[in-house]
Amino acid sequence: MKLLFINSLYAPHVGGGAEIVLQRTAEGLQRRGDDVCVLATGPQPGLHVSEVRGVKVYRAGLLNTYWHYSPQRPGPLARLGWHLRDRYNGAMRQYVREVIQREKVDLVVCHNLAGWSVAAWDEVSAAGVPIVQVLHDLYLLCPGSNMFKKGAPCKTPCTLCKSLRQGHAERSGQVAAVIGVSEFLLQRVRAAGFFGQAQASVVYSASPRADTGVAAYQPMAEAAPAPVRFGYMGTLSEQKGLSWLIDQFKALEVAATLDIAGRGQAAYEAELRAQVGDNPRIRLVGYQSPEHFYRAIDVAVVPSLWNEPFGLVAVEACAHSVPVIASCRGGLTEIVQDGVNGLFCFPEQPASLAAAMGRIARDHSLRQRLTDQAHCSVEHLLDMERMLDAYQNTFNEVVIKGRPRHGSNLAVHSD
């Protein structure tokens, strides 16, 4: 089958878990014999083609006020202007049209549409090619993709978000099948009126099996316990709860260290460093590979303030036999099982994070049990072939059935 994946970014430009999962999927399906190509946005004008690990990748210069993959966060007015253009960026349709004509694809699989906007759906539909939409975040409900404002998750889209997403649910009628990376995410988007007639399923994002070689944790002697090594890995941003984590860790009255791995906007990283100050127990260690990082910590912390769409980082921690303290929100509740492979904390109860860290640090038998059970608890999420099977089954069904509607009753925006 000839497949075209459309996404906001593609390696080496990685904004988060969506790009990681997409690359694993594209390469896996290519190995299985599908003819795969990818279309992503890029910083250079025009359309450019290259190859990344055997996969053909087209990069289209983003026709907006700036390219959104940048270490510097633009100001509020610049971001608003970008999102106004992105509510329907008809200019980007030319790239979708050109790649479809070049590649003669059987199916287009859309992932994150930031930069492309739902104009991509219209162009694919106009070409008579069926569409599968994979949901990784809340972009279709919120221009910021996270439904997070003033330090808390939004229960419903605000007035501005509704305005910038007007007509999007109707346009989703062009999509033949929708796949959510978690049950939480799929149901949240469909509850807003999207994909009412589309074939729907959940395909959990798989993480490659981890041959960690890490011995089971051994309880420390009560007389001289070693410091417990807590760690965070992921994007450094406000909704990830890092400021909350640092404050709660500082309040701990146990021997412990905290390593924070990842990158974020330069201004936010500077805020975190100022918050850490000269505390010798807390380190910001920059980018780390999972294989290296999880060998160097005892407990992972995922203190998300927003509703995580999935939480691939929690899967990877457990895969390396590292238990997880996680916020009881979003897709994380489909990975972390309280008392089995980790503990829950509750952003609405700030002290619950320090309490969970203190409990797991003091109770050696609890930490031993959670460590022993972590890997097997996510065994079903470590099978890449299972994930690829699920995607291929959906793709085959859509191509055989064809697209249910052409969306001809939808108004066509101009650039």
- Radius of gyration in whole Å, from Cα? 22 Å
Q: Please estimate the helix content.
A: 25-40%
- Identify low-pLDDT runs: 212-224, 404-415
- What class do helices, strands and sheet pairing give? alpha/beta
Q: DSSP helix count?
A: 14
Q: What is the element string, with H for helices and E for strands?
A: EHEEEHHEHEEEHHEHEEHEHEHEHEEHHH
CATH fourth-tier homologous superfamily of the largest domain = Glycogen Phosphorylase B
Global morphology: globular
CATH top-level class of the largest domain: Alpha Beta
- Report the CATH architecture of the largest domain: 3-Layer(aba) Sandwich
Number of domains as seen in the coordinates: 2
Q: What order do the strands of the largest sheet run in, or round the barrel if closed?
A: 3-4-2-1-5-6-9-10
